[in-house]
Design brief:
By secondary structure, the protein is an alpha/beta fold. Strands 1, 2, 10, 11, 12, 13 and 19 form a seven-stranded mixed β-sheet that branches. Strands 8-7-15-16-17-14-18 form a seven-stranded mixed β-sheet, with helices on both faces. A hairpin with an 8-residue loop joins strand 16 and strand 17. Helix 1 runs parallel beside helix 16, helix 4 crosses helix 9 and helix 7 crosses helix 9. The model has no long low-confidence stretch (mean pLDDT 95). Bound molecules: flavin-adenine dinucleotide (FAD).
């Protein structure tokens, strides 16, 4: 195809996930000419949304963290002077395990009391473990909120990360190579099946790893973050993504939807993006908000997927329900269906509930999400229909334990498999959520974000990893590199 001549911008961003939008919005506010290209028709990627049959649904992410005062997302929105209405949630999540409901309370004292009451047979080591998670999680939280840049690749990473250093930082250094499982054993928090399942299910959601494999540093912050900073945002993460899009446009940037970048070529110290339409865009700097395998494709290299077991796929059951007569419900419920076998599809799932509003007050939407091995869905498509039906029914059963009369209320059922995520969010292999947070993948050993000169990556596959807060930090670091390399001083 003949390509048209290149338009020129300071920064081109490929993808409007949270990492890309953060980098774009901060750069546009700094006065750079910014162009964001998004192949889908809406922003947010895995944290975006969609509408179907008169119902609104979150595409993936539901739980919002990082909007508390000083939180990473709050720092981004504060710097951009964007008002975000959010309400702190206490409890953040309600666990359903056996016939018990266990609310994850925000203060450690309340949580310790709730835990003792729910699991009277749990050894005293579990109380020590929750104290540890709060103390170590607090230190890691403080480090994260200082916006470090890891792994250390350049002097600038040392400078950015040194801001996080406090006397307490020393306490978490020994945890760098350790796992939550080792910490649990050291503290005597072992031997209670249901308590372990609760810890594992929360870690799986936030880090992709169970206690045995999960980095102690990431595990501490993951367990603690739900207590420090879980917020309710009307319209969810997709609303936040849309606010970033508006902010980019207000600062003169462009965000083009249904616009796929087909390839990326170096050109005389800058980059040429070739769009699927054939248009060329020249950019002094590029932020690629796509997984490494997708960037490989853009650079005409053989795509390399993470190794087996290093990343997960997701299965989500989307239900449109009639909420008539339902009382306001707590939005997040972790249902643990089989404590002994969390690796089985649907053994643990997160039920997120969105009540309808205004003229659509009765149109509630419910998302029930669980981890699944992506390759099983993509490599054996012939088995998908039967597998999908079985998992839909299992997740429907889980949600029915949370929402009264669910069977009679369901008006619409759809489900998303790894193939769906591959198609709609362009995640190669249907892998979502970045790398499993094992000690070898985090902090000083996390993947870096500078694959080539003047090309930076943002997203959940580079430091610090999973979740919208993590990707926002990756976007901040990409933005800092862009502005510093153009001789400007970044705002964050
Ligand atoms: C089911 C599920 C539940 C989750 N739950 C939570 C949660 O509760 N809380 C939380 O914080 N996180 C959650 N996450 C994780 C979180 O959503 C992701 O980690 C985060 O949103 C990823 O952001 P990203 O910046 O990596 O971009 P992505 O979300 O991967 O977005 C990348 C964007 O780039 C676009 N794109 C790709 N290639 C091109 C191209 N060539 N040209 C143009 N555009 C392109 C894609 O269409 C996409 O919009 C969940 C994820 C899933 C899947």
């Amino acid at each position: 195809m003949m390509s048209r001549p290149a338009a020129a911008v300071d920064l081109a961003v490929i993808g409007s996930g949270f990492g890309g939008l953060t980098a774009a919005a901060l750069s546009a506010k700094d006065g750079l000419t910014v162009a964001v290209f998004e192949r889908h028709t809406r922003p947010g990627g895995c944290a975006g949304d969609f509408a179907l049959g008169g119902y609104w649904f979150p595409a993936g992410a539901t739980v919002v963290t990082g909007l508390e005062p000083g939180g990473i997302l709050r720092q981004v929105f504060g710097t951009l002077a964007v008002e975000v209405a959010s309400t702190p949630l206490d409890p953040s999540i309600v666990f359903h395990i056996g016939d018990q409901q266990v609310p994850y309370a925000a203060t450690v004292a309340d949580w310790q009391a709730t835990f003792r009451h729910a699991f009277p047979g749990a050894p005293p080591g579990y109380a020590r473990f929750w104290d540890w998670s709060h103390e170590a999680g607090g230190v890691v939280y403080g480090i994260g909120a200082s916006l470090p840049s890891l792994p250390i690749e350049r002097w600038t990473d040392v400078r950015r990360t040194a801001r996080a250093a406090r006397p307490s930082t020393i306490k978490v250094l020994p945890l760098l190579g350790s796992t939550v499982g080792r910490v649990k054993r050291r503290l005597g928090a072992v031997g209670h099946l249901e308590a372990d399942a609760l810890i594992d299910s929360l870690l799986l959601d936030a880090t992709g790893a169970r206690a045995e494999d999960c980095s102690a540093v990431q595990g501490a912050i993951a367990l603690d973050l739900y207590r420090r900073g879980c917020q309710w945002v009307e319209g969810g993460t997709a609303r936040l993504a849309m606010q970033l899009v508006r902010n980019i446009r207000e600062h003169g940037g462009t965000v083009e939807f249904a616009t796929e970048v087909a390839s990326l070529e170096p050109k005389g110290g800058a980059w040429d993006l070739v769009l699927a339409s054939g248009t060329r865009v020249r950019a002094k700097r590029v932020v690629a908000n796509v997984p490494p395998a997708a960037l490989d494709r853009l650079r005409a290299r053989r795509p390399e997927l993470p190794g087996a077991g290093d990343a997960w796929g997701a299965f989500v059951l989307h239900l449109g329900i009639d909420g008539d007569g339902l009382d306001a419900m707590h939005p997040f419920h972790q249902v643990i269906q089989s404590p002994g076998d969390l690796d089985a599809d649907g053994a643990s799932c997160l039920v997120s509930i969105y009540a309808g509003r205004g003229a659509r007050a009765n149109r509630w939407s419910v998302s029930v999400s669980t981890h699944t091995r992506a390759a099983d869905w993509l490599d054996y498509p012939a088995r998908t229909a039967c597998r999908r039906a079985a998992l839909e029914s299992r997740l429907l059963h889980a949600a029915a334990g949370v929402i009264p009369d669910l069977d009679a209320r369901v008006k619409m059922v759809r489900s998303a498999t790894p193939a769906t995520y591959q198609r709609f969010t362009a995640r190669p292999g249907g892998l979502v959520g970045g790398l499993v947070q094992r000690p070898g993948n985090v902090a000083l050993r996390a993947p870096g974000h500078r694959p080539e000169r003047h090309l930076y990556m943002a997203g959940d596959h580079v430091f610090p990893g999973q979740g919208t807060v993590g990707t926002a930090l990756s976007g901040i670091n990409a933005y800092r590199d862009v502005t510093e390399s153009l001789g400007l001083r970044p705002m964050l």
